[in-house]
Amino acid sequence: SPNIVDQNPVCIALLKHIKPLSPIEQIHKVQKPFGWKASIAAADSISLLIMRTHLFALCLSMATIGIPKANGVMDDYDAEMGEFMNALPNLDDTPYGLGQRSDISTEPEEDDILASLDDEYEEAKHCVWNTCDKDLSESRGIGKFLDLPFIKKIASNLNPFGSKKLRMHFYLFKREFPECGREVDFSIERKWRHCGFNASLPTRLMIHGWMSQSRGSFNRDVKNAYLKKGEYNVIVVDWSASSANINYFSVVKLIETFGAELAQFIRNLNRQFGADFDSMYLIGHSLGAQIAGSAGKRLKPVKVNTIFALDPAGPKFRHRGTEFRIDPSDAKYVESMHTSANFGFRRPTGSATFYPNYGAYQHSCYYLGCSHIRSYQMFAESINSPLGFWGTPCIRDNGRWQCDYSQRQSIQMAGEPSIHKEGIFYVKTSSSDPFALGKQ
């Protein structure tokens, strides 16, 4: 409905900043004299048209979230969103989205800015992770529906003629700077020498999944849980420039590439800082779990201590051999948690594999993807839970469960540090946060 677009503040702001060209204008731009220059111009115009069309479709989909009430009067929530969007600067003039520089960024201007901030970099004063984190977790307005830098990544991946950024970024968090990550880049000496990594502390690396944001809830919740627990090197592995692609199957093809890059980064932690492989855990969600497995394979014969595979991605992996998916041999200990039959992997994938509520779906999950994200919500909770998640050993035979109730709730799922065990386990959880029930 045109009214949805005309009255929705998100669409108004998007159309204001995107400035899409009409199909007639695009066709007019393409009609140049024949020749190779004309072909290039046509390709560029078609590329822009495709990208802007996708963004316009995204605008329409978001508009349905905030349809005005029937009486035509916007409530306080809509008014707040409209005021926020109208205050946004033009995206063409602000390379960092909201006019502030974020350390979680893949913008080309990053190195130029950092070059003039050596002293500030040592104290991490330039970073505004905490501001972005607050925007995403607490905002009642645009933060819940629209993260502009992330949408720019989606738009970039929608452009078939655009350049692809096959690069990971690594951000270190510690108790001294819990909200302000420092980039660890071994190609630039000052970015790793002064980052504050402490080889005497245990290291936890988190790898997000498909269509996840570097500032999203997986990284935020797990990072905060570890830093509440104690002293750690917590490293956020950001590959969102490539994972922010609605074509899941294209992203799957990049898993081995990013697995190799992660493995090289882990080797550099050992070579440059003297970090012990046995002190390292990889925590991967969805496709991030498959990247963790790929990295583990490439590190052999060396192995990290533990991989936590949180509902490892199933589509395009279910029929692959173990050499192309997460496997118990990818670390000294691999623990998997399966919470979603649709997005996740159904068969056991770890030395120990846990199936909360039998793993097909989770209680009180009524929207697509809820069961999938429940895995990292439970994991983050397990790190500091006084009750814990407790599993019962079981055997799965042709889809049927046979559990040994003489050992009922005898094996702990997740937690910190990892406790090595083997087998398949059923775990009963609560339907709402906190999910841990302890031993009952």
Radius of gyration (CA) equals 23 Å
**Topology order in helix (H) and strand (E) letters:** HHHHHHHHHEEHEHEHHHEHEEEHEEEE
The rounded distance between the terminal residues' Cα atoms is: 53 Å
Q: Tell me the name of the CATH homologous superfamily of the largest domain.
A: Alpha/Beta hydrolase fold, catalytic domain
Low-pLDDT segments: 1-5, 19-34, 61-78, 80-146
Q: Percentage of helical residues? A: 25-40%
CATH fold group of the largest domain: Rossmann fold
Overall tally of structural domains = 2
Largest sheet: 12 strands, mixed
Query: Helix segment count?
Result: 16
Extended strand count: 12
Chain-averaged pLDDT: 76
The helix-and-strand class reads alpha/beta
* Spatial shape: globular
Explain what the structure shows.
With 440 residues, the chain is α/β, with parallel strands linked by helices. The chain has 2 domains: 1-159, no CATH class; 164-427, Alpha/Beta hydrolase fold, catalytic domain (Rossmann fold, 3-Layer(aba) Sandwich), CATH 3.40.50. It contains 16 helices and 12 strands. It has helices at 2-7, 9-18, 23-30, 36-63, 76-86, 110-115, 118-123, 129-138, 148-158, 189-193, 217-229, 240-243, 248-252, 255-273, 287-299, 370-382, and strands spanning 169-174, 177-183, 203-207, 233-238, 280-285, 306-310, 333-337, 352-356, 389-397, 400-403, 411-413, 423-427. α2 (9-18) runs parallel beside α5 and α14 (255-273) crosses α15 (287-299). The N and C termini lie far apart (53 Å).
